[in-house]
Design a protein that fits this description.
The chain is of the alpha/beta class and about 190 residues long. The chain is built from six helices and eight strands; from the N terminus they run βααβββαβαβαβαβ. The protein has a single domain, classed as Rossmann fold. Strands 6-5-4-1-7-8 form a six-stranded parallel sheet, sandwiched between helices. It has a two-stranded antiparallel sheet with strand order 2-3. It is globular.
């Protein structure tokens, strides 16, 4: 099974609060916990028996942007260390200079994630152009069995990715990043 993630950048969560860029911010921690629970549920994990319903590996795909994508990648790496052989991380890099204008802390985290990933796919070797972000999203959707959208329903790159996935018939689960409610069943998008 392959599960890709799409979601908002931190600036969309913080509403002017730049502390949201800290990966340990309470909002990011809540999102990370919801992601972990979702991944384990989709993997058929039984907490009582500590076993999975099948031995099928789960590939978790991140587009490696700040925010949701980074949280997803970190959760994937933690699950991989907790359950060796069950989870893999794939990073889909949208363009050649991705991450070059980030803070030094974010650049270091990005490099560390890429170094630890099972697979790194450079979707384009071109320098940044906005359309390459959508091209990356389409690449992830085209390989995915399912998509988790951490999305509030507003028009955005995340919304474009959700629309593309629905058009392609890929099930989309939604987690609203401000309401912290249960993850919605596929394609019950609000």
């Amino acid at each position: 099974m392959i599960i890709a993630v799409t979601g908002h950048r931190p600036k969309n969560f913080g509403k002017g609060d730049n502390s949201i860029y800290d990966i340990h911010h309470a909002t990011n921690v809540k999102i990370g916990r919801a992601m972990r629970d979702f991944i384990l549920m989709r993997a058929g994990y039984n907490a009582e028996t500590k076993e999975f319903a099948s031995n099928e590996p789960i590939r978790l795909v991140s587009g490696m942007a700040l925010g949701v994508d980074t949280i997803w990648a970190l959760v994937a790496l933690k699950l991989r260390s907790q359950f060796p052989g069950k989870f893999e991380l794939e990073c889909a890099i949208p363009h050649a200079n991705h991450g070059s204008n980030w803070s030094e802390v974010d650049k270091k985290r990005y490099a560390d994630i890429l170094e630890k990933a099972n697979h790194v796919e450079h979707v384009s070797k071109e320098p940044f152009s906005r359309y390459l972000m959508q091209k990356r999203n389409e690449h992830m959707v085209n390989m995915a069995d399912e998509v988790l959208a951490v999305w509030d329903g507003t028009p955005s790159g995340t919304g474009n990715c959700v629309n593309y996935a629905m058009k392609k018939g890929v099930p989309v689960y939604q987690y609203h990043p401000f309401l912290f409610e249960e993850i919605k069943e596929p394609n019950k998008i609000s």
